[in-house]
Design goal:
By secondary structure, the chain is of the alpha+beta class. The strands form two sheets. Strands 1, 2, 3, 4, 5, 6, 7, 8, 9, 10, 13, 14 and 15 form a 13-stranded mixed sheet that branches. Strands 11-12 form a two-stranded antiparallel ribbon. A hairpin with a 5-residue loop joins strand 4 and strand 5.
Length: about 300
């Protein structure tokens, strides 16, 4: 198999920006043009992995996998490609259970499609969909219900009471938990995900993604007076802590190294590089972008 899924779990707010914005937010996060869904550019992940140190990766192997330095870019292509990391689960404040990991039918259907591309056959086949904007689907052991309702941010939702919908939600929560929290020590996190898993209507999900991202006011001070510089106030948007994204990584040994580099060796090297948390996106010096990356086994 030449493709695998990667899962990115944000341990601190993640700012994958697009540069200067034209709206109220000066530094917005990157969003897909057609869907307006936030994403992490694949180039950000590839660049971070290329610069990550590991005793298991020799300089020669690093060049074969990621390609030569910029000044020698014409020598040969790299042997690995990363898709953009797409949104899977978005954390939203909840009146009960502290927060919910929200998703929608469209996000799960995209995951199904990409899982097939990665040769995964055990992903749940049923994608349940809430009947209206005012409804949602949670698991049978959900901690999100309060007085028979689910309250997320400004949304007042009625959970689907059918056993079939609850089972489908649990199937997806369990499957996602096994891949995102694949380490045995993370078993409690799988249980947390199942208890906080919530499927929203696609339009309700769009509302959350427009209104519930993290927006921070930042200032630049004058060195002497310690007052805000002229024009030194700006607003940055980030994906909140606990956001979960996923994407494809494709191993395709460059023609120059086909006899000495196979897919297994490439994926083994990537697994070594993702063994510890990585810093992705911008604003590293203020603690943004600390992420745990897991690769499909």
């Amino acid at each position: 198999m030449n493709a695998k899924l990667l899962f990115v779990h944000a341990l601190s707010p993640l700012h994958a920006g697009t540069g200067q914005g034209v709206g109220v937010i000066d530094l917005p996060v990157a969003r897909e043009k057609a869907t307006n869904l936030p994403y992490l550019p694949g180039s950000s992940l590839k660049g971070t992995l290329r610069d990550t140190d590991s005793v298991q990766i020799t300089p020669d192997l690093r060049v074969k996998i990621f390609g030569p330095d910029t000044k020698n870019a014409d020598d040969h292509a790299g042997s690995v490609q990363f898709s953009d990391q797409r949104l899977l689960l978005f954390p939203a404040r909840s009146l009960s259970g502290t927060f919910a990991w929200t998703t929608s039918p469209y996000l799960l259907q995209r995951l199904q499609r990409d899982a097939r591309s990665a040769g995964i056959s055990d992903a749940p086949s049923a994608v349940p969909a809430p009947g209206s904007l005012e409804r949602c689907i949670v698991t049978a052991n959900s901690r999100l219900t309060n007085g028979g309702k689910v309250y997320l941010e400004d949304l007042d939702l009625e959970p689907d009471a059918s056993a079939e919908a609850k089972k489908a939600a649990m199937d997806w929560a369990s499957w996602c938990g096994q891949h995102v929290f694949s380490d045995k020590a993370e078993t409690p996190w799988r249980e947390m995900l199942a208890e906080r898993f919530c499927i929203l209507h696609d339009d309700a999900m769009g509302f959350l993604l427009d209104t519930a991202t993290e927006v921070t006011a930042r200032t630049r001070l004058e060195n002497d007076s310690k007052t805000v510089q002229q024009g030194g106030l700006w607003y940055e948007e980030s994906l909140p802590t606990e956001t979960i994204l996923y994407g494809l990584v494709v191993a395709s040994p460059a023609r120059k190294f086909k006899d000495e580099l196979d897919n297994g060796r490439i994926f083994t090297a990537l697994a070594a590089l993702t063994a510890t948390p990585l810093q992705l996106g911008g604003k590293a010096t203020v603690g943004r972008g600390l992420c745990q990356v897991r690769m499909q086994a």
